[in-house]
Amino acid sequence: MMEFGGWWMPVQYKGILDEHKAVRSAAGLFDISHMGQIFVSGGDAGAWLNSILTNDVSLLQDAQGQYTLLLNEQGGVIDDLIIYRIEPDSYLLVVNASMIETDFQWLRSKTSGKITILNQSEQWAGLALQGPAAEGILARLLGDQIQLPARNGLLSLSIANGPVLIARTGYTGEDGFEWFCPASVAALWWDKILEAGRPVGILPCGLGARDTLRLEAGFPLNGADLSPTHSPLEAGLSFFVKFDKGNFIGRAALDAQRSGGLERKLVALLMGDKSPPPRPHYAVFHAETPVGETTSGSLSPSLGAGLAMAYLPAHIATLGTLVEVEIRGRRFPATVAKRPLYRRQKTSGAH
To answer: Which residues, including other chains, have CB under 8 Å from residue 301's CB and lie 6 or more apart?
Structure first.
């Protein structure tokens, strides 16, 4: 067990390697009840959220979601999150555990117009079912008559044991679903999903496998790879910043970066075969000069090599650049590599 975002959470159940492989080949189930659920509603909710977040909320239809970011005035990342439009003028924001109160208070401080903001994180729980067998497991659990959502879609169900929100999203690079339900019935649904997945080899998964899976998929972790001192442009997340939608908090700072050029960029580093696994805060060198430090790092079970992320000067942050990472007093070679380093085979329902 370890503390994460104010929660005590398991690092592993059966073992990080076994859990990682289960998600890549079949399915794994993660407890994501530490994530926050903030509901925003009202006649001005959509337009107001579009002035707060980086992605274009106006593109969402009912039962659709999108990845987006919450920025400070300097263009730094307060949090990355997923926003779902439940119905017209009603939205759900799923935010990171350690940022629930910060996000909630920030949103409240910026409120204008006809808007209601409710932090219901204590009332809701979340489970993430991830892997190529995830769709079949939910079909077995819910019945073939339930049409599961497409990628980034949201399905609202009124079934026994309370309401359920099922989103086709995840943090592993695999097809999968995030299942939100009242906290009082979370343990019941945990057991039911594991039982439905038993024939295909589902495993419960902890924080360790979550980290190796998301690193392979090239997904940044807020508080490590994302921070209030780094912009989404520096983090390689410009796709989720829509400059053509109008003004939003942090835009002026991002415009200055666009016109002046980026000084640093977040890159993936692929370690050599004989390197120990990298960890966060290891020094990175180029031509004998320290140029940064790793923000995340681990062994990649799929690639059999160490992976890391680091912010490097822009002129070094190009594919194929050779650097060195200092691990326990020794330097090991690494190459700036393209994210993601692992890409799944897409299934028909996950487009």
So the answer is: 16, 17, 20, 21, 24, 212
Is residue 102 situated within a structural domain?
A: yes
The full 3-state SS of 184-218, as one line of letters, equals HHHHHHHHHHHHHHHHHCCEEECHHHHHHHHHHHC
Rounded to an integer, what distance in angstroms lies between the CA atom of residue 46 and that of residue 51?
9
What pTM was estimated for this model as a whole? Answer: 0.94
The CA-CA-CA angle for residues 19, 167, 144, to 5°, reads: 90
pLDDT digits (tens, 9 = 90+) for 226-240: 999 999 999 999 999
Report helix, strand or coil for 108: helix
Three-state DSSP class for residue 14: coil
Rounded Cα gap, residues 224 and 235, in angstroms: 11
Residue 273: which CATH number? 2.40.30.110
Q: What is the pLDDT of residue 343?
A: 87
Average pLDDT over residues 99-123: 96
In a domain, 52, yes or no: yes
Please say which residue of 214, 236, 252 terminates a domain: 214
Where do the DSSP E strands lie in 257-321? 264-271, 283-286, 289-300, 305-313
Residues 148 and 281 in one domain: no
What CATH code is carried by the domain that includes residue 114? 3.30.1360.120
**Helical H segments across the chain, by residue range:** 16-25, 45-52, 100-109, 134-142, 186-197, 207-217, 251-260
Task: List Cβ neighbours of 109 (8 Å cut-off, separation of 6 or more).
Answer: none
Segments in 220-342 forming alpha helices (H): 251-260
Tokens 């000067």 belong to residue: 313
**Domain range holding 71?**
2-214
